[in-house]
Amino acid sequence: MFDLILDNALHKGHRVDVAVQGTRFAALEPAGTLAHAQAKERLDCARRLLRPPFYNTHTHQAMTLLRGIDDDCALMDWLTREIWPREARLTPEAVYAGTRLAILEGLKSGCVAFNDMYFHQPAVLRAAAEMGVRARVGLMYMNQVSDHIENDATLTLRDTLPPTLGLTLAPHALYTTTPDLLRRVAAQADALGLPLHIHAAETAAETAIAKERFGFDTPIAYLDACGILRPGTLLAHCCHATEADLERIAKRGCHVAHCPQSNQKLASGVFPWAKAAAAGVSITIGTDGAASNNALSMIAETKAAALSAKLGAAAPDALRLADLDRAATETAAAALGFPDVGKIQPGAQADFILVNLDTPAFAGGGDPDANFIYAADTAAVDTVACAGRLLLRGGRHPDEPAILAAARAAAHTLLTP
Ligand SMILES: [Zn+2]
Predict the structure, then answer these.
(1) How far apart are the CA of 288 and the centre of ligand 1, in A?
(2) Which one, of 150, 136, 208, 148, lies nearest residue 174 by Cα?
(3) What range defines the domain where residue 146 resides?
(4) I need a labelling partner for 27 at 20 to 30 A (CA). Which of 175, 291, 350, 359 fits?
């Protein structure tokens, strides 16, 4: 008796039956093979496309509460004038409400995981655990909150987390930290075996700071000298990484979280995807926070990554669909450190989405997977599952009205003077 059977789903151009047992896929067979197998539940997938879900590798989830504030502003002005004063008023309850809203938005775009860097991390972990998604939650360090690196109380949660959740150490960026802070965080990562997550080479201003304040040619060279570039380190943005930087990133076994819509909105720069791929860099895709994107749809973000790569290289074949798809799913899942995640095959973790083919993007023919990335929107996402649990059905989450109401109330407390 299986827990779940998906009957007759369209997957990679073939009709298949898929069985789920516990948290894993138990079978993937030609359609009809499992017609008589027993299951606690079965879904008729005749009009559904079966895909791996998205894994969002760079977020500040609770920034959903700060969306739509001074959208036409340079990064440093926006942070210092609009965002940081309001973030100083964040409570764990507000972060919990904002994170649940972000998780809901992610699920509606077919995303089951996020790599977060924000405040009040226990509240983020609680939201992720309750909503059944995967998360890596970063203990964020900036100069003003760096006293607790070696005895951060949140580290005690580490041994209580389920396999779907984990911690990272997340020094914010080179312009909000000192060399001493970065070296202490790198030593702590060594001691605890935790991965790092940091903003890197996001803007041209950051390159100037690397030169003038720290005496290095590029932010990546500086971060490497501080011990930050290590296997598993997730570098967000890297728009201004040079070819030598990209080779260094690949050699050190780091991953890049490419956030095209945030880069475009803040006019930060264009991540050199084709050059990074040629250098062997592990490239993944992230939305960044909702205040600088401003949406959390991984469908839109993945399409934007393709457009950015093609325009940046002035070549329509600079990024092909199969490579794009892999970056947003399998590579991203591996970059977040989840074993056996990101592929639909027996034995792998049962993370999947079912896309409704009875929506406009799929009526005109063509490759359904291409149509999903390039033409569909969140309205096409029907079902989302993580570790065998169905989290979204019919495009709806059972707690949706309560999540929206709580986020509305939390945002009100931050946005009113
Ligand atoms: Zn960010």
Answers:
(1) 5
(2) 208
(3) 56-335
(4) 359
